[in-house]
């Protein structure tokens, strides 16, 4: 069985940067925390926990120490609270997420109602939305955009992991709502590139394995686009979840991984698939 790994599988620029910053902060010692998981990889979070980095839900009871801000950002209120408490802040927010936050702030300061295209429950979106100083709406689809009120000036940004198609359809809907429209395509290249590569790989193989956290939006989307082209697509977090039955009659298996999946997990999965193949032949 041939195993084909997508070229750009795994860590994107922002996650790599955040993970490095977190491990460096952990190495320094002292009380170190992250507000929510640093990246959407339970395995990386576990490693950091082993080095003494604790995950907090809120800053409420924290008055001292180092706080690492995760790659997909936090709300402006949380950042202000950390500064007010004079915590040492290691801001690992991905620069692309920061850009979306800044656009929202500037748009609302200049009189635009803001539309954020994304998943309202996702912490990245909640962070982006918190920078609005006026009206702000979150829409996940063009159907939701169709229900928006009429607006004079509309500013649109997207969650970094959104698909271009979805943004395009929401923009079309908004064209019917407002007089003046400004659109910032804040979709991150890393996501699009991974999706395109995964799509072409899914077309060429008999089975696809997508590795990444079940809480990772970009991994979930990667698995979705692969499933559309290759029904034998399976999302896993670790090699232990691989099921030999998935590979029956498979000649080529494609492997890709979400932007928050570390290389060591990808290597373990590839090794395990290869081992299963050997077992099959024995
Ligand atoms: Fe940043 Fe894009 Fe990664 S927004 S965290 S480089 S997926």
TrEMBL record:
Binding site for [4Fe-4S] cluster: 12, 94, 188
Keyword Iron among record annotations: yes
Binding-site positions, (2E)-4-hydroxy-3-methylbut-2-enyl diphosphate: 40, 72, 122, 160, 216, 218, 260
Pfam families: LYTB
Taxonomic superkingdom: Bacteria
GO MF annotations, alphabetized: 4 iron, 4 sulfur cluster binding; 4-hydroxy-3-methylbut-2-enyl diphosphate reductase activity; metal ion binding
Cofactor(s) demanded: [4Fe-4S] cluster
Keyword terms of this UniProt record: 4Fe-4S, Iron, Iron-sulfur, Isoprene biosynthesis, Metal-binding, Oxidoreductase
CDD domains: lytB_ispH (cd13944)
A biological process from GO: dimethylallyl diphosphate biosynthetic process
EC number: 1.17.7.4
Residues given in the record as dimethylallyl diphosphate binding sites: 40, 72, 122, 216, 218, 260
HAMAP family in alphabetical order: IspH
Family statement: Belongs to the IspH family.
Described function: Catalyzes the conversion of 1-hydroxy-2-methyl-2-(E)-butenyl 4-diphosphate (HMBPP) into a mixture of isopentenyl diphosphate (IPP) and dimethylallyl diphosphate (DMAPP). Acts in the terminal step of the DOXP/MEP pathway for isoprenoid precursor biosynthesis.
The protein, known as: 4-hydroxy-3-methylbut-2-enyl diphosphate reductase
